[in-house]
Amino acid sequence: MGLFDRKKRESAGLAVQLRDSGRQPFGVLDGYVPLRSGEGELYRSIREAVPVVDAAIWKLIRLAGGVRVQCGRRELQGELDRFLRTVNAGRGQRGLQAFLDGYLDCMLTCGRGLGEMVLDRQRRDIAALLWADPALAEVREGETPLDFVLCRRERGGLPRPMPCQELLLFTPFQPEAGSPYGVSLLRSMPFLTEILLKIYQAVGMNWERMGNVRFAVICRPGEEDGPGRAQERCQQIAREWSAAMAAGKKGSVRDFVAVGDVDIRVIGADNQILDSEVPVRQIMEQLVARTGIPPFMLGLSWSSTERMSSQQADLLTSEITAIRRSLEPVVERVCELWLRLHGADGGVTVEWEDIDLQDEVEEARAGLYRAQAERLRREENEEG
């Protein structure tokens, strides 16, 4: 029997389902490669993808706010306060606090903050305080760690020192030995964030497939039905089923009647969606622990009796105090330059507002205990 003598096979109906390759929208996390210095776009994607991380950073920024500066010249104190309250911070914002908020946001996200003190045309006053993208600057170290220059790459690719280095502000966040760039608060989060986004993407796709009910209509032709008859019957059942479903959208009920062995099932009814509560919580615990913020302050109620204990308050206070210490040199440089431009020398004292009311209550209670102890000592001395 030759090749051209083969009998034509009867064509059978095939049902093919094409499944789209679902992928979470933050693709930069899939190709993450750990590098020595943090990637700004990667860390911004983490903040955009995980709202808890973004909320934690903004919570740290708000808690670290509230600064006052005292100078040695009383006659200039009022003008200094007015300058700190009304200085142009760019982008429609005013005040030193607005500049520190943007500056600290870059420090926590990118691992370093970059800013500039802009003088007026007469170079007699500070006209604005601006912060910039830290990725624009590169650090060129000198012979000693005390000597470094901020550079910017030109079109040729070679780094060139930025002009007016004395007016630039640069602060690394938790710098490591051998690297002047600092460490981002989000450095240890890309791997866990990628897993978390895969879980969320899978949950969304499963609900899209199983939450919106789909039906599988299976028609088994009998022995008396030939290939052509079976195909015709399947097409007829498909038309009638589509008409019944379309009528249901318009609010009318339409019965579906078929002849033969017809089986109708709900796609995905026998399957069970994996429970994502435990793995999501484990990952969220790691992410929240890195920020240092108590979980309930971010809207995470993992315990029915969860509240801020004195130990958690002390830890959070120490975290905020450490962040404030990183910002103090920036505030001192700005205020000292303003004093020199106004013909005054001398240092300034940076004072931060109390973090919360709980600290004031604890301090008042401690003062009360000390006063009571002092009174008891006096009474004992008088009796003795």
Index terms:
alpha+beta; 9 helices; about 375 residues; disordered N terminus; three-stranded antiparallel β-sheet; about 45% helix
Structural summary, described in words:
This protein has 9 helices and 12 strands. With 384 residues, it is an alpha+beta fold. The protein has a 3-stranded antiparallel β-sheet. Strands 6-7-8 form a 3-stranded antiparallel β-sheet, with no helix packed on it. Mean pLDDT is 80; it is low at 1-18.
Query: Which sheet architecture does the biggest sheet show?
Result: 3 strands, antiparallel
Outline? elongated
Mean pLDDT: 80
Stretches with pLDDT under 50, minimum 5 residues: 1-18
Question: Which structural class fits the helix and strand makeup?
Answer: alpha+beta
Which sequence of SSEs, written as H and E, runs from N to C? Answer: HHEHEEHEEEEEEHEHEHHEH
Distance between the termini: 129 Å
Find the count of extended strands (DSSP E, 2+ residues). 12
Biggest sheet: strand arrangement: 5-4-9
Strand share of the residues? 15-25%
State the helicity in percent bands.
Answer: 40-55%
Question: What is the tally of helical segments?
Answer: 9
User: What does the radius of gyration come to?
Assistant: 34 Å
Question: Could you write a compact summary of the structure shown?
Answer:
Helices cover 45% and strands 16% of the residues. By secondary structure, the protein is α+β, with helices and mostly antiparallel strands.
